[in-house]
Queue: 4 jobs
Job 1
Amino acid sequence: MEYKIPTDLKYAKTHEWAKIINEKTIAIVGITDYAQYQLGDIVYIELPQVGSTFKKGDVLTELESVKAVEELFMPLTGEILEVNKDLEENPEYINNSPYEHGWIVRIAISNLLEIEELLTAEKYSELIEKEEH
C-alpha cells in the first residue's frame, strides 16, 4: 500500500503529523494517511477544548471508527488555539483528506526543541514500512 507522506510535515511515532508554521510558533496537527487507513471509516471525534494545554505524548482526544476507538496523542507540547469544527459534522474528512480538510487542532507550540524530536517524512516512511512487515 502506498500512503501519502508530505515532505513538509513532521511526524510522531504514534502517527500524528504536525505542520509547523508562523516561524515555528504554531502547528497544525492531524493523523497520518497511514493511521486513518488502519482505523477504517472514522465516525466520531471528540474535539478538545480551545485553551486546553497538553504535554507532548498526552492523549489529545479519541477517534471512533467502525473498527475501534483509538487515542490520538499530542505530538508537541502546547495550547489549543483552534479546533476543526467541520469534523463534528463530517468526521470522514479525516479519512478522505487527512492533511487538508481533516486537520484536527491548531496549537501554540510551547517547546520548540520538541520539533527536532519529530520524524522527517523519510524516517516516518521507514517506520510504517517496519510496522507493515
Job 2
Amino acid sequence: MLIIKGAVVGLLVAASASLHADFTYTETTQITGGSMLGIMKMAGAFSKEARKVGEPIVSTVAVKGNRMAHINPDRSEIIDLDAETITNIDTLKRQYTVVTFEQMKQQIEAAAAKMKAQQQKAETTTPEKPATTAVKFEVHVRNTGQTKDVSGLSTNESILTMNMDATDKNSGQTGTMAITNDMWLAPEIPGYEEVKEFYRKFAVKMGMVFNSAINPAMLAQYQGASKGMAEMTEEMSKLKGTPVLQVMRMGMTTDSKPLPAASEAPLPPQPAGPAMPSAGDVAQQSAASAISSKLGGFGLGGFGKKKKAEPEPADSAPATGTTQPTSSVLMETNTQMGGFSRTVNDASFAVPAGFNQVQLKSEN
C-alpha cells in the first residue's frame, strides 16, 4: 500500500540510497480473532501445524541494495532484483527452491490459459449465457485524529474501509465482501526509505511480468470495477506515513456497511486452547455462508450459475428471540513493526550450508 509519487521523490530516495544501503527491522504478525480462528484452533487437536495458529510469527526484514530477505524460524524468502530470482528456504526441511521472474511469468500465463479453456468449455456446455455481474467498490480513508506511541514512535490513526458489493443482474442476488484496516502511521522512520525504494523497483520488474501475462479485460467483465480501482487509488493517497501497526479485518456483511475497526469495536477474547464453537461462532458462520452463497463462493464466478432461491419452509425460520447477524469477521490479523536498524547481516541473503536445492513442481 506504500506508493512513491513523482520523479522528485524518486531522485531523493535514490540519493539517500547511495549513502545508506542497509536497513533491517522486525515484523510481528498474529491472527488475533475471527470465526476462522476458532475453527482452526479446533483443527489443532488433530494437526501439529494447526496448533500454531494464533501464535505470533516474528520475521526479520533486511534490505541491502537490490536484495531483500524475509526471515522467520520456519522459512525465509530472498528477492534478488539483479538476478531476477526469488529463493524460498524451508528451514525445517533443510531445502530451498529458486524461481526466476521469467518462470513466474510462464506459470501465470499457463494458469490464465487453463482458466480461459475452462471458461470456454463451461460456455459450450451451458445453454444459457453467463450473467453480467455489476460490482460496486466503496473505499474510504478516515483520519481519526487519535495518536499513540508504537515501537517508540509517535503515530496517528487512519482507518481504511473497503467494501465490494456484487450483484447478479439476472437473479438479483447481492453480497458484500469487506476489509477494514486500522492503521497507526509514523510520519518518518529514518532508513525506511530503503524499503520503499526496493518495493518500487520490485513493482516495476513485476509489473512487466504481470502486464504481459494478465489480460486487462478480465476486470472489464465486471461492471464498475475500473471506476472502483480509480477511486481506491484516490482514497489511498490520503494515507500519510508508514503503518507501523495494522489491525486488518476481513469478512462479509449483509447491509453493505463496513466492518467496524478494531479500535472502535474490539473482538471478544479467544479461548486459550481448542474448543467447540460457541453459538455466536455458529451464527457468524451461518451468516458468512449465506453471504458467500450470494457471492457464488468467495469469488465472483458463481454469479449467473444459480437460480433464484426458492422460499424457505416455515420450520426453517430462526427461533423466536434470535436475530441473524448483519456482519461476520472471518479473520483479524495484527502486524507490528519494530527493531529498526541500519545494521544488516550479510548471511541473511545466503542459503545456509548443507541445504539441498529442489526443483519446483510443474503445473499440469
Job 3
Amino acid sequence: MIASILLAALVAQLAAQGPITQYGRKPKADKGPRALGLIQLSPKGNKGRIIPIAIMMDGKFYDAGSYKATPVPMALDFDIVYEGFRTGVSQGVFTITQPGQLNHAWIAEGTWLPAGAKAPETSKKYSEPVIEDKDAPPVLHRRSEKTADGGTDSKDKDKDKDKDQQKPSAPPSANPPAPETAKTPVPPETAKTSASNEPIEDPNRPRLRRGKPNSNARREPFTTFDALTDTAPGTSSTGAGKANAKAARSPEALPQIVTIPAISDAGGPDPRPYNYDVKPAEEAIYRNKMLALAAAQLRAEAGSVEKETAPTHKKSSSRKSARKSSALSVPDFDDVTLRIFDLSNSNEPVLVLSAKTRPPAAGVTESIEEPKEITLIARTNLEGEVQKLFFAQTDSRHLDVAPRMELIDAVDADGDGRGELLFRRTFDGGSTYAIYRVTADGLWALFEGTP
C-alpha cells in the first residue's frame, strides 16, 4: 500500500515537471586551420588557379593571402588540397603545385581532379613474377637486337663476325684510344649548400589538408604569374587581324572561366547540400514577393532622399503630383536572379535576389537616372511572408560609397555545419570578398576583406 502511494506521488511529480528532454552530444567546434578560396578553372584542361580568401585559426578569420607568409602564405603552401563545392555538393579536388604573385597578390596554380574521376597513376604497376618449372629442360633465349641504321638480327651479326675473322687484322694504331674519364665525386661542401637552398618546414606549423607528396616532382622557385586572358590564340594585331581579334574577344566568343568555392581542412564536418528544393510554381510566388519587397525598399529610400534634399520654400502643385506619381510607380527589373538556400538544415528558405532597375525612357522624366543594381536578402516567417534581412543598392557613380554585391555561393566557412553566404564586393578602386552569416533578423559579417 505504501509502495503504491509513493509510486503515484513520483509519477505526479514527473508529470508536473513536464516532458523530459533528451539532449544529444554537442559536436566539437572546429577551431581551424580551415582555409577558404576561390578556384578559377579554364574551360580546357585540368589546370587552374586558386585565389585565397580567408583562413580560420582558433575561431577567428584572417586574410588568407597574407597570413603567415613566410615566405608563402599558409593557405597556398605546396601540395595543399582544396575541395571544391557548389552549394555544399563536392565538385572535385584541387592540389596546389606552384604558388606565386599576380599584381602583388598571392595566388597559386594547381591541378584539378573532378569528382568521380580517377587520379593519374604515377607509380609502376605490380606484375606477378613468372615461376619456371625446374624439372623442364633448359631453354636458351636469343635476344633480337637492332642497330641504329635499320636493324639486323643477331644471326646476321654472327655471320658478319665470321667474315671479319677471315679478313687480315689491321696493324695496331700508334695512339690507343683514351680511357673514359671517371666521374668526379661531388664535394661535401657543394652538397651542403645545395641542400641548404631547399625550404625548411617548421614542425610546429599548423597543417591544412595535404595530398600525398610526389618525391619525383621538383619544386620550382616562386614565380610571378600573368593575368588570366581570354584572348583567342593566333590573332594578329595589324591590318585585318585587328578586326578578327575584336571579333574573337567578343563576349560570345570568349571562353568562360569557371569559378568554384573551395575549402581546405584536415578535419571538419561532413559536407551537406544547402539548396532548397521548390517547385516552379512556388519559385514564381517567391520571385513575385521578392520583387515587390525590392520595389518597396527602393520607394522607401527614394522618399527618404527626397526629404533630405527638399528645399524649405513651397513648391508648385504640379511638381508635387509628378514627384508623388514617380515615387509610387513600380520600377521594372532586368537580369533578375533568385537563389534559395536552406543554410541551417531546418527547412527554412533564405532568399537572395539580385537585379537591375530598368532606366526610364528618354523624355519621360527631366533627368535620366542610371540603372541601379540591388541585392535583397530575406527569409520567411510563420505566415509565409518574406521579411527583409539585408538590402543594398548602388550604381556606377556610387561605387566608392556602396559596393556592388555579387553572390558567389553558400559555403561552410567556419566548419559548424551551417552555411554562410560568400559575396564579392566591388568598389571603385578594386574588389574583395566577404563572408556573412544569416541570423534571425539580419546578417553578421564573419569576414570582410580590404580591396
Job 4
Amino acid sequence: MTAAMTVQIRRVELFERAVVLRLPFRFGAATVTHCPQAFVRLTAEIGGRTLIGAAAELMVPKWFDKSPDLSHEQNFEQLREALRCARDALLGGRGSPWLLAQDAGETATAMAQSRGLPRLAAQFGPALLDKAVADAALQAAGLSWCDGVVAGVLGDPHSARAGLQRPTSVWLRHTVGLADRLTESDPGTDPGDGLPATLAGAIDRYGLRRFKLKLCGRTDDDLARLARIAAVLQGAGDYRATLDGNESFADAPALADFWRRLRAEPGLAELHRRTALLEQPLARAITLRTPIHGLGIDVPVILDESDDHDEALDEGLALGYRGISSKACKGIYRSLRNAARLHGQPGLLLSGEDLTCQAGLAVQQDTLLAASLGVADIERNGHHYVDGFGSAPAAEAQAFASAHPGLYDSAGGRVHLRVAGGQLDLTSLHGPGFAHGAEPLWADLTPMN
C-alpha cells in the first residue's frame, strides 16, 4: 500500500461562470433558469513538486437552503461565502488530503455557520476544495481515483476499499422535473438547439432506461402527473425509476397517504413495480426525528438533504431509512464513509444523485465517485437542462472531448455528454488525478470576489 501523500497548500483560487439552462428545471418549490458554476484551482506542493488540482460544482439555489425568504442570488452568495471560508481555512495547511479535509473542513464549516449559513450550505466549500486537493495528490502519485483510493493516497481510514470498483460504464438516470414537457403535445417552447425538449424525445435520443421522477408533495397532482409519465415510460421498455420527494411532504401521515394511494391506483401498478427507491420525502427539519417504519412504504426510502453530518446515515437507519445518496457537493469523504458503512449490508443501498453537474470536471468527478462505490445507475441532468458546455469557449469543450472521447460527443459542432444505450462510458476517467484529463480555460472564468 502506498503511503498517504503529504500535501502543502500554497494557493487557492476561486472562479465562477454563468450557466443558462436551455429548459427550466423545477424541483420542490424552486424553478431554476440560470445559476453560476464554481471552479477551484488549487496549487499544492507535494514531494518537492508543484501540482495543480481542479474541481467544479454548480451553485444550485433552493437546495442547500430552501428558506422562501432568500432569493436565488442570496443562495448563490451563501455558497460563495462557504467557498471563501474553505479557502481561508485551507491556505497554508499541511497533511494528507483526508487530514486537511477534517481539520480545515470543520474550521471552514464552523466559520460559515457562524455567518448564518445552514450546515449543508456551509459544507459546500470544503466539499469542493476536497476534490481539488484529492486531484493534486492523485496526480502527484501518478494514480487514478480508483487506484489511488485503494493504495491509500488520500489517507482516509474510512475508504470503502473492499467494495471499490473500477467502472467502465454506468447507467444514466434521467431526471424528469416538475416543469418538464413529457410529449410534443404538451404546452411549452422548444429551445430549437437540436436536443430533446421532452421526455419522449430524450428516451428516443439517448436510449434511456433509468429515470428519476420529481414529486411536489401534493398527492392528487403527483398521482396525476405520474400516470402521464408512466404512459410515456412504456416506450422505454424494461425501465427502472426512482421517486424524489425533495422534502415536499408535510409530515409522515401525508407521506403514508400518498404511498397508500399510489399502490391502490391501477394505472400506476407497473410504475410502482419498477420503482427502486424513494428519496428524502420529508423536510430536513423533521426527517431525523420522524420514524417511518410503519408507513407502509414497500421500497427503500433514502436520505439526501438531511445528510449534513457524519452521523446522519446511522440516525436514519435507526428510523427506518435504508440508504443514502452520494453527491460530491456533500463531500467525497462522506460518500466513502457511507459506502463503507453500507457495504455488504443486505437491503441497504447507496444511490447516486445529481446537483445538475455540468459537463467537464463536475460531471466527471461526481460520476466516477459514485460509480466506483458500486452505484449502478446515477442521476444526471446537466445533459438535459444545459446545452453541452453552455457558455464555455469551444476550445475548452473540445479539450475535454479530446481527453474523454467516449464520454463526450462532438457531432453537430458542439460538445455534449455522450449517452449511448442509456449509459455513459467512463473508460477515460481512470487516468492520473481525480477524473481530470483537461481543465477549464481559467482566463475565461470570472474570479470570485
